[in-house]
UniProtKB/TrEMBL annotation, chains A, B, C, D:
It comes from Flagellimonas sediminis. Residues 115-131 have a biased composition (Polar residues). Residues 115-151 are annotated as: Disordered. Homotetramer. Keywords: DNA damage, DNA recombination, DNA repair, DNA replication, DNA-binding. Gene3D superfamilies: Nucleic acid-binding proteins (2.40.50.140). Residues 139-151 have a biased composition (Acidic residues). GO terms for biological process: DNA recombination; DNA repair; DNA replication. A motif (Important for interaction with partner proteins) lies at residues 146-151. GO terms for molecular function: single-stranded DNA binding. Plays an important role in DNA replication, recombination and repair. Binds to ssDNA and to an array of partner proteins to recruit them to their sites of action during DNA metabolism. The gene is ssb. This is Single-stranded DNA-binding protein. InterPro entries: NA-bd_OB-fold, Primosome_PriB/ssb, ssDNA-bd. One of its GO terms (cellular component) is nucleoid.
Length: 151, 151, 151, 151
DNA sequence: TTTT
DNA sequence: TTTT
């Protein structure tokens, strides 16, 4: 315990399909962009303004596979996780910086693919899913042996 | 996954010592009251008002033991968990209802017992601690075989 | 500022219609039950178990009227607020205790009444709505002159 | 209402002093870096690893002035807000991207400057402070007329 | 009393 | 690039 807290909670829509990448050891990582919207009225002009924020969502291993299987562009989802900054060297030699949301928990709020109905139940059991009183049947290997890969 | 969310996040002070109870199988449960305060100014009278809410905190197994070991009355702590309603029959034959916060994660914000400094690191690794990329060294048995006990 | 935090975040379904009550000064309060579900597999028996928790949701003034207008039994909603304990004397003379969630923010995730489409935009502007950069057009009177009424 | 949620909750330590900037109309914006830590044990090597994430915190107007007045490098604070991405053109002509946490609520968890004790009460009344039953005495102008400035 |  |  470090006495700190790093928590993000988002409800938004997928702006694109889930992209998954498998590592040699069998681990995998999934990524997708998530849009949240804010609407307000400009006080000076009186016009209604909508701002969209795009978030880089990152999911690992079993949870990644569930997302890849059941989520599609446009779906609404709740994700909970941590902010993580990542840097890498761009092709032009300059450093690039990105902030990602590394998912610890999620729940589907709509899915276009309605075939998941029953499967959906275990769909919310990501890595070390905190809201499960009993242990998940499938042990999830969370080893971050990919940590220095440019993802 | 059920498509729902049940989350509570509190920062408050312990109103009493942690009380722990061990079950036969080795499981245990710890309880303590946590106070949060709200201060506002009454618009009509202009006086400052402070309201204190008391929350029933429930922690299980390894996390319970960490709390019992390191937290004391007056300590400040962050807890995250789920709301759970519990009912039982009182001595007068009437049903009693209580709402509890079942802890999934926590972090110490102050402790009177400063001896924990180093131990503190694993102090924040409750059951299925979600913010850990690697697995906790000690597997935590979360079996709720005590679920129908009146706690 | 009191150095404490009292926050609840729920996604659930309304178990009943919104009940609204108006006070003399024009203030009002709305209440509805909200269900969250938890599903897990019993480790011993292998059977799937679903637990439902019921939460007492309380909304005030303008936000209350929006809820009453647009939410119906069965709708899914996100609510954010504070835990508040309330006690009152029952008809049998015994004290009763309830824990409520006093809403500070909310967003509709589905509504059966689809006629709200456009109105919905301001539907998420409860009292002192925090996610609005510009001020809401309608000042909301939040005076808690009803605090000792048995609601 | 947009049916989305964009929420960040952090407990961390200030990595530097609060920097405040005043605009012509009297509005102001404060910024400071906030560190959160994550500690875990590498499963392969068995060594303990600590990761620090740095977050760009942005506060506006009255809340900004309170932060500037009472927070110092090293202080621990809870902040709640929204993720906001900002881009601007760097001196080299390349676009720069940053993710910021725009604060909606906060509470001091420690302060080196203990003189605030009493003042602290209003220290937690940022813009449209959601946890206040009564209205703040000082109306806060939240107009974002500075939105296209490179902050 | 909700929902999947 | 989402959604309402």
């Amino acid at each position: 315990m470090s006495g700190t807290l790093n928590k993000v909670m988002l409800i938004g829509h997928l702006g694109d399909e889930v992209k998954i990448h498998y590592f040699e050891g069998g681990n995998c990582i999934a990524r997708f962009p998530l849009a949240t919207n804010e609407t307000y009225t400009n006080r000076q002009t009186g016009e209604k303004v909508t701002n969209t924020e795009w978030h880089n969502i990152v999911v690992r291993n079993k949870a990644a596979e569930i997302c890849e299987k059941y989520l599609s562009k446009g779906d609404k989802v709740y994700v909970e996780g941590r902010l993580k900054n990542r840097q890498w060297q761009g092709e032009d030699g300059n450093m690039r910086y990105t902030t990602e949301v590394h998912v610890q928990d999620f729940t589907f709020l709509t899915t276009k693919n309605e075939s998941l109905q029953n499967t959906q139940m275990q769909g919310t059991a990501p890595q070390n899913e905190p809201s499960r009183p009993s242990a998940p049947e499938v042990p999830i290997d969370d080893t971050e042996e990919d940590d220095d890969l440019p993802f």
